[in-house]
Amino acid sequence: MQGRRSWLMAMRGAVAAAGLMVLLALQPEPAGLIDVASDRTGAHARALILSDQARRYLSLQYRSYPTEFMGCMIGEIHGNAVIVRRIAPADVEPGHSTATRVVPEQTCEDAGWAGTVGMIHSHPDGQRCWYYFPGTRVASSDAHSFARQPYPVDAIMCGNRVVWLSRDMVEQQVRLSDPDTHPAPPPQHPGNRVHAGASAREGQD
Questions:
Q1: Residue 102: CB partners within 8 Å, gap ≥ 6?
Q2: Hey, where are the domains in the chain?
Q3: How far apart are CA 7 and CA 24, in angstroms?
Q4: pLDDT tens, position by position, for the chain (205 residues)?
Q5: What are the residues whose beta carbons fall under 8 Å from the beta carbon of 39, sequence distance 6 or more?
Q6: CB atoms < 10 A from the CB of 49, how many?
Q7: 58 membership: H or E segment, kind and range
Q8: CA distances in angstroms from 8 to 15, 16, 18, 60, 151, listed in the order given
């Protein structure tokens, strides 16, 4: 009799524990604990919002360099909108930036930029600003590069507009306030001036 009572109590405890596990599994995850990095890869952004600071930086960079520059778009995701608070220089050696190509040395995170939501680079001549060749679904090299990145969006700076792509591979545009500009005469040191940018990073939070 004592053995049967112990067995019944053990069974009741097991059933109660199983019920508790089911209830916990049904609870929604607290918003503050959601992994932003994992959420990025599945995000299908419908809007790219550039802050005034980001727009000023892009306009200045576009005017200053005849070679392609590359930046890390830092911000956050709100629903289907990617909000870019500022642009930080990507880690690009001057010799790895030409009028048609730019290659970073390392990722934005490895360069010290937290909160990156996408990459942006320029096409100094304002040409070939697309991720698919016009009238086709043939992906450009920029689309292939985006496919290898973990971010929800990628963008190309082309004068007065930013052409961007989200993970659903829908190409969109954002107009900037300044009129279309042309590249300035070559400066003494083309590229992103990585080392100056790296020293500036040390004083930032």
A1: 67, 68, 69, 70, 92, 96, 121
A2: 2-33, 43-201
A3: 26
A4: 555 555 445 545 544 444 433 333 333 333 222 233 334 444 589 999 999 999 999 999 998 888 899 999 999 999 999 999 999 999 988 777 877 788 888 999 999 999 999 999 999 988 999 999 999 999 999 999 999 999 999 999 999 999 999 999 999 999 986 444 444 433 433 444 433 333 333 334 4
A5: 77
A6: 14
A7: helix 52-64
A8: 11, 12, 15, 76, 54
Distance in angstroms (rounded) separating the CA atoms of residues 199 and 37? 27
Q: Identify residue 33 by its one-letter amino acid code.
A: L
- Locate the DSSP E strands across 56-193: 70-78, 81-89, 116-122, 153-158, 161-166, 171-175
CB atoms within 10 A of CB 132: 15
Q: Which amino acid is at 153?
A: V
Handedness of CA 140, 73, 160, 183 (dihedral sign): negative
Q: Name the class of domain 43-201.
A: alpha beta
Q: What is the pTM of this model?
A: 0.66
Distance CA 143, CA 193 (A): 26
